C-alpha cells in the first residue's frame, strides 16, 4: 500500500473541481512561502485564548499582522502578549499545513519550488528545534525535560499541539519519501523527531484524548524512521493506543468524554496512525481497527437527519458531518470506495448543508469544500453512485445518550456523564430538530478563554434542564435509563446530593411531549429551562408582565427582558421560522410560575428565547407539549 497511488497526478487534473482546488492551493502556498518568517524566541500561547473575551467570537487570524487581532463578531481589536502568543500558534500551524499542501502540489505539478518550500520551512524548524523554549501554554519556561511540568511543547505551547504538527510533518515526509534526500531525512530524525520522543513519551500517562494525539505523533514518526523502541511504547506501553481505544471508547462507539468534537479530534490522530500501520505493514490490532471503523459508523448514525450533530459537553457549536469528512476519507484510503465508510462519505457529500468550520486545530479544506484527503485518496471516485443511509432511532446506553426519530422530528437526549472530563452540568437535557431546522440546540462553548465559556456556556441555565436555587447541577455521574422505544425515552438521575429527577420524552412526526418530575430533600427554587433558536421567532405569546428571576450569577445574569406569564391558566407560545410553526404549551399546575426571557446564542450578538418553568418548594411535576405544523395552517386558524 502507498500513500499516493500511481497515476494520482494525472487523474487529479482531469476534474474541474480539483483543478480549481489546485489553483487555489498554489496561491495560498506561494503567498505564505514568499513571506515565511519565524523566530524561536517567539513563545507560543494557548490557542483557546484567541477568542473575544466578551462575545466568544474567534479572532481573525491574519498571518501578516502578528500584533493586531480583530473579533470576527463584534469587530473589536485586541492587542497584547496573550493574543500575540496565541497568534504564534496559528501561524506555526499554518506553516505545517503549508508544507503538506506544497508536498501535494509538487507531486501533482513537479514544479521544484514546491519541494523547496517544504525543505525550507521544515529545515527551519528542524535546525532550530532545540532553540525553541520548552514551555507550557501558561507561559512557564523550563531549562530541560527533567524540570518541566506535564504538557510542555517547544514549537507549540503543549505536547498536544506538538504532536499534531509532528503528524503533519511525517505525512509530508511520506508524500515526498522518494523526493527528499537522505541527509534531509536524517537531520529531521536527529534534530526534531528524537527530541520530540524525549519530550512527549512521559506525557502519555492516562486514557484521554491528548495522549491519543501524543501516541499518533510518536507512532507515525517511529514507523517512518523505524524506531522500534518507540513503536513498542506506542503499541505496548502502559497507556498504549490499543488500551486508549479499549478503555476510552464505549460499546456504543463513542469516546467516553461525551463530546462529538473530541470524538473526532482524537480520531484524526488515531486514524492517521492506523493508516501508517497499513503503509508499513505493522499490526494496529484487529479489535482496535474495528473500533475506529465502528466509531465513524456510529458518529454518522448519531447526527440529526439534517446532518447537524448534537453537541453535548465541551466542543464547538453547529458542527455537521461535513465538518469531519476528512477523517472518513483517511479511513476510506484503507477500506476503499466500495466499503461502508466509502458509502457514508458519499452520503455526507450529498448533504445540503454548508460545512461548519472548526475554530481550532482545523484540517485543510480548499474553499471549505474539498479536504486535502479527498484530493489525495478519492480523486477518482464516482460520488453519484451510493446507497442512501438514513438515520434511525437509537439508544447509546453506555454513552448515556438516546436519539428519537419520527418523520421530521428528531430529539436527542443526554441523561448522564461518564466522568468530569469536558463535562457540562446539564444532565437530563435534550436537543430538538424539525426537518432541516434546529428548534433547540446545545451551544457547546466558545474558546475556553472567553468569558462566556465559563459564565454561560458551561452553566446549567444555558441548557434544557433544571437548576436549584440558581446553582448548577453538581453531579458528574451516569444517569439511569428507565425505558426506551423508538419514539420515547425515560431516565432518572441524582442531579444534586439532595435532589433527584426523572424525565420522560416522547415524540411523533409533528409533536413532542415532555414530562419532568423532580424531588428535593430541602425546599428551594427549582427552575426548568427550554431554549428556542433565534431563527424561530416568537410571534404570539400569553399575557406577560415585566419581572425578574431573582438570581444574578451562574448564568442568570445573561437573561434579559424577563417577563412573567399570567398565572392560573395554560401558557401558550407560538414560534414561526417562515416555513413552519411551533406551538409550545405549558399546562397550568398549582404553584407553577412561567417566565419568558431573552438569552445569549453562540456566538453573540444572536439571542434566543428561553421559557423558564419555576416551582418554589420540594417537588416539581410539570409537562410541556410542542406541536409542529406548516405556517399557513396556524394563520388560517
Give a structural overview.
With 637 residues, the protein is an alpha+beta fold. The protein has helices at 8-12, 16-35, 81-109, 112-127, 159-175, 182-200, 209-225, 228-236, 241-248, 260-279, 286-302, 325-335, 340-349, 372-377, 451-457, 631-636, and strands at 59-60, 69-71, 77-78, 134-135, 141-142, 365-366, 370-371, 394-396, 401-406, 409-414, 429-434, 437-440, 466-468, 480-485, 488-496, 499-508, 511-532, 537-540, 544-546, 560-565, 571-576, 580-586, 593-600, 607-630. Strands 13, 14, 15, 16, 17, 18, 19, 20, 21, 22, 23 and 24 form a 12-stranded antiparallel β-sheet that branches. Helix 5 runs parallel beside helix 7. The chain is globular and about 85 Å long.
Shape, principal axes of CA atoms: globular
In angstroms, what separates the terminal alpha carbons? 65 Å
Question: Helical segment tally?
Answer: 16
- Mean pLDDT, as a whole number? 95
**Largest sheet properties:** 12 strands, antiparallel
Q: What gyration radius follows from the Cα positions, in whole Å?
A: 26 Å
- Structural class per helix/strand content? alpha+beta
Number of strands: 24
Give unreliable regions as ranges. none
- Share of helical residues: 25-40%
Sheet-strand content, in percent, reads: 15-25%
Amino acid at each position: 500500500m502507498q500513500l499516493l497511488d500511481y497515476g494520482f497526478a494525472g487523474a487529479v487534473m482531469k476534474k474541474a473541481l480539483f483543478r480549481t482546488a489546485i489553483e487555489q492551493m498554489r496561491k495560498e502556498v506561494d503567498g505564505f512561502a514568499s513571506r515565511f518568517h519565524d523566530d524561536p524566541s517567539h513563545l507560543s500561547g494557548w490557542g483557546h485564548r484567541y477568542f473575544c473575551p466578551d462575545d466568544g467570537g474567534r479572532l481573525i487570524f491574519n498571518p501578516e499582522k502578528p500584533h493586531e487581532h480583530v473579533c470576527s463578531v463584534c469587530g473589536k481589536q485586541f492587542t497584547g502578549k496573550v493574543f500575540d502568543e496565541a497568534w504564534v500558534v496559528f501561524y506555526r500551524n499554518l506553516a505545517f499545513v503549508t508544507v503538506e499542501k506544497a508536498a501535494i502540489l509538487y507531486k501533482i505539478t513537479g514544479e521544484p519550488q514546491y519541494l523547496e518550500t517544504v525543505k525550507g520551512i521544515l529545515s527551519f524548524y528542524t535546525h532550530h528545534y532545540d532553540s525553541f523554549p520548552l514551555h507550557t501554554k501558561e507561559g512557564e519556561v523550563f531549562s530541560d525535560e527533567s524540570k518541566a511540568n506535564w504538557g510542555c511543547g517547544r514549537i507549540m505551547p503543549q505536547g498536544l499541539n506538538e504532536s499534531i504538527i509532528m503528524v503533519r510533518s511525517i505525512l509530508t515526509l511520506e508524500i515526498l519519501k522518494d523526493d527528499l534526500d537522505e541527509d534531509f531525512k536524517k537531520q529531521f530524525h536527529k534534530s526534531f523527531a528524537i527530541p520530540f520522543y524525549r519530550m512527549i513519551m512521559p506525557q502519555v500517562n492516562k486514557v484521554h484524548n491528548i495522549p491519543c494525539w501524543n501516541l499518533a505523533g510518536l507512532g507515525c514518526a517511529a514507523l517512518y524512521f523505524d524506531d522500534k523502541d518507540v513503536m513498542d511504547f506506542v503499541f505496548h506501553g502502559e497507556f498504549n493506543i490499543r488500551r486508549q481505544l479499549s478503555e476510552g471508547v464505549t460499546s456504543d462507539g463513542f469516546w467516553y468524554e461525551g463530546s462529538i468534537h473530541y470524538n473526532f479530534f482524537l480520531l484524526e490522530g488515531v486514524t492517521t496512525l492506523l493508516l501508517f500501520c497499513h503503509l508499513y505493514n505493522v499490526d494496529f490490532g484487529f479489535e482496535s481497527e474495528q473500533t475506529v471503523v465502528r466509531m465513524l459508523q456510529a458518529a454518522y448514525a448519531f447526527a440529526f437527519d439534517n446532518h447537524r450533530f448534537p453537541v453535548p459537553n465541551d466542543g464547538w457549536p453547529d458542527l455537521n458531518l461535513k465538518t469531519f469528512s476528512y477523517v472518513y476519507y483517511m479511513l476510506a484510503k484503507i477500506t476503499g470506495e466500495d466499503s461502508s465508510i466509502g458509502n457514508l462519505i458519499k452520503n455526507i457529500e450529498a448533504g445540503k448543508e454548508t460545512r461548519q468550520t472548526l475554530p481550532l486545530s482545523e484540517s485543510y479544506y480548499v474553499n471549505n469544500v474539498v479536504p486535502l484527503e479527498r484530493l489525495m485518496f478519492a480523486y477518482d471516485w464516482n460520488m453519484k453512485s451510493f446507497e442512501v443511509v438514513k438515520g434511525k432511532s437509537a439508544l447509546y446506553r453506555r454513552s448515556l445518550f438516546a436519539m428519537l426519530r419520527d418523520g421530521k422530528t428528531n430529539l436527542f437526549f443526554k441523561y448522564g456523564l461518564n466522568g468530569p472530563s469536558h463535562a457540562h452540568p446539564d444532565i437530563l437535557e435534550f436537543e430538538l430538530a424539525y426537518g432541516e431546522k434546529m428548534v433547540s440546540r446545545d451551544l457547546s462553548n466558545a474558546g475556553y478563554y472567553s468569558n462566556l465559556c465559563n459564565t454561560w456556556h458551561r452553566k446549567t441555565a444555558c441548557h434544557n434542564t433544571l437548576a436549584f436555587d440558581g446553582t448548577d447541577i453538581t453531579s458528574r455521574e451516569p444517569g439511569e435509563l428507565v425505558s426506551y422505544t423508538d419514539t420515547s425515552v425515560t431516565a432518572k438521575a441524582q442531579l444534586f446530593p439532595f435532589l433527584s429527577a426523572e424525565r420522560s420524552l416522547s415524540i411523533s412526526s409533528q409533536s413532542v411531549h415532555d414530562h419532568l418530575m423532580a424531588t428535593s430533600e430541602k425546599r428551594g427554587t427549582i427552575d426548568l429551562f427550554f431554549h428556542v433558536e433565534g431563527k424561530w421567532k416568537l410571534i404570539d405569546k400569553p399575557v406577560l408582565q415585566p419581572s425578574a428571576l431573582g438570581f444574578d450569577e451562574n448564568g442568570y445574569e445573561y437573561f434579559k427582558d424577563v417577563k412573567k406569564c399570567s398565572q392560573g391558566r395554560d401558557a401558550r407560545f407560538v414560534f414561526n421560522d417562515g416555513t413552519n410553526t411551533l406551538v409550545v404549551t405549558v399546562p397550568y399546575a398549582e404553584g407553577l410560575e412561567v417566565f419568558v426571557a431573552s438569552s445569549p446564542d453562540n456566538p453573540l450578538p444572536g439571542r434566543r428565547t428561553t421559557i423558564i418553568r419555576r416551582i418554589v418548594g420540594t417537588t416539581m411535576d410539570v409537562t410541556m407539549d410542542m406541536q409542529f405544523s406548516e405556517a399557513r395552517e396556524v394563520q388560517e386558524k
